[in-house]
Amino acid sequence: MATIGFIGLGNMGLPMAQNLVKSGHTVSGFDLSEYATERLAVGGGRRATSVGDACSEADAVITMLPAGEQVREIYLGGEGVLASVLDGTLLIDCSTIDVETAREVAQAAQGSGLAMIDAPVSGGVAGAQAASLTFMAGGAEEAFARARPILEHMGKTIVHAGGAGNGQAAKICNNMILGASMIVVCEAFLLAEKLGLDAQRLFDISSKSSGQCWSMTNYCPVPGPVPTSPANRDYKPGFTAAMMLKDLRLAQDAARATRAVTPMGAGAAAVYERFVESGGGSVDFSGIIRYLRGA
Ligand code: NAD
Fold it and tell me: Of 2.60.40.1220, 1.10.260.40, 3.40.50.2300, 1.10.1040.10, which CATH number belongs to 169-294?
């Protein structure tokens, strides 16, 4: 079993770190929030007092931070990860961040002789708690092979997406599909309502027809057809609209940087922006149906 430094013990990071502890790893966790490090310690982890402390004896360091800004600071800062780890420590960033920062940090790690992968996740807090996350990893084959046995204690599906930054690329492309498809599924149910077509009937037909997609069959935005979807619990998240907007903005930044043409992705980002501005940020992203109903 490995000694792992874990930085960023928030909604996702804490249950992920707790699963590593349960699997027998020694986990030294650091977060700006003392409450978070205390929670880790209660479950058998070790409370680190700084980034350097979390890294000092680690075979691997995992980060789960809000955005690229924090990832850059934590890895490249004066007393950050690159300055603190032992030779040979494996670096794994699981945060969702922009592709450019992921590649920049991976290159800096390589310059320090360290192997690194970006490994953002899908599956949300429930997936983090149940150790059933999907990891999309970018980086060298050898680094991915070293990371896999660690990631297996936190997730069920672990996919190598290619070189550095490709995990982030996969994540933002996937979530651009998800955001756009959720909006159009909501629109279809609202149009059906106006046309006098019952929601359950539309579901029964569309879920078996060419309009079938994950947003409809697993996460249906109207109450009833899929009993486990957030629509049945007043759109309690789940995955918040604010998180969806973050990922759609990352996709748009990447599209601008690469001159990719993404009118649907741009439209989805604009609609989620208006929903979040209208106060929907902490609602599940499928709750955008309420905004569309009123807009
Ligand atoms: P969160 O805000 O709950 O957790 C982030 C943690 O990082 C916080 O505890 C914060 O105190 C800590 N932190 C911030 N700056 C720090 C610093 N300089 N040093 C140490 N700790 C610091 O966020 P989350 O929901 O756990 O999400 C983490 C990442 O996972 C994000 O990039 C998010 O986009 C991604 N993600 C989240 C979900 C989800 O459903 N929540 C799903 C998939 C991916």
Answer: 1.10.1040.10
DSSP code for 277: I
pTM value > 0.90? yes
Q: Model confidence over 111-161: pLDDT tens digits?
A: 999 999 999 999 888 899 999 999 999 999 999 999 999 999 999 999 999
Q: Which residues line ligand 1 (CB under 6 A)?
A: 7-13, 30-33, 36, 64-66, 70, 73-74, 95-96, 121, 124-125, 239, 243, 246
- Under DSSP, the state recorded for 30 is E
Distance 94 CA to ligand 1 centre (A): 10
Class for domain 3-162, per CATH? alpha beta
The pLDDT tens digits of the residues spanning 5-17 come to: 999 999 999 999 9
Centre of ligand 1 from the C-alpha of residue 180, in Å: 24
**What is the distance between the alpha carbons of residues 171 and 17, in angstroms, rounded to a whole number?**
21
Q: Which atom of ligand 1 is nearest to the CA of 73?
A: 18
CA 250 to chain centroid, in Å, comes to 12
What is the spatial distance between Cα 29 and Cα 22, in angstroms, rounded to a whole number? 14
**Would you list the domain boundaries of the chain?**
3-162, 169-294
> At 116, which helix (H) or strand (E)?
strand 116-118
Q: Whose CA is nearest to atom 4 of ligand 1?
A: 10
